[in-house]
Model the fold of this input.
Amino acid sequence: MAQSFRLFQGDPTVTSSPTEVRVWIEELDYSFLVYGEKFERAEINGEKLHDITRQKLNELGIIRTDHQDIILKAVANIYKKNKVEEQAMQREDQCVRISK
Done:
């Protein structure tokens, strides 16, 4: 069963399951293995991950501020990267329409 978890690679998206989010959390740092379980138990999927806060991390039992910082920064980077990719696709679509 653990092998099926490894099939998920990359950053979670809003459609990612709690299991996919768990794998992503665990891959951030070896010491985050226990956090992955907490995320999955709390049914944190990709959509909920987008809205994760320091308070929610505390509620999950993730109290080390350095670990919270790593998780929050990683989440912010995902959605920043997604926004940049989305904007690039929109620009590409505009260029295609103009050239027609």
